[in-house]
Write a structure and sequence with these properties.
Layout lengths: L7 E15 L13 E13 L4 E14 L2 E17 L3 H30 L12 H10 L1
Antiparallel strand pairs: 1-4, 2-3, 3-4
């Protein structure tokens, strides 16, 4: 009977990999009624860095439009370095594509709110995302 080591998961580092803010309609946008729409794109990219280390990147691209014109665009890539060992292969996809992005999301959300505020707009407060559902959709596709 072989003894398997206990599963191990640890957050080793959370960091901002990339951030950008664009406001192509400034300063005219500040004189217009602000009836906006939001388009949010989400991408999760896990990358194995060693036997038990993974970098998981969460890229959020938020485009706020006034009619057909872009009022502002914010793109944030929040990343984390995770130590993950002794999990069953069938559990790894959920950890990397759901659990880790759930940890990263509040950091990315705060950065997006801060950048939109510094750009002269109200802070863009994103609603929580269900990464379990997003992962299930990607797995089904």
């Amino acid at each position: 009977m072989s003894e398997q080591a206990a599963p191990h998961f640890a957050v080793e580092k959370i960091y901002l990999r990339d951030a950008s803010f664009e406001s192509p309609m400034s300063p005219q946008v500040f004189t217009m009624p602000f009836n906006s729409t939001l388009d949010l794109q989400v991408k999760v990219d896990p990358e194995q860095l060693g036997e038990h280390h993974w970098q998981v990147s969460l890229r959020l691209t938020a485009t706020v439009r006034l009619e057909e014109q872009t009022a502002f665009l914010v793109e944030v890539e929040q990343a984390g370095l995770f130590a993950i060992a002794n999990f069953a292969p069938e559990d790894m996809a959920g950890l990397l594509n759901s659990y880790c992005p759930t940890i990263l999301f509040p950091y990315a959300r705060e950065t997006i709110a801060s950048l939109s505020l510094k750009g002269g707009f109200p802070p863009l407060e994103l609603q929580p995302l269900n990464f379990d559902a997003l992962h299930a959709q990607q797995a089904a596709a």
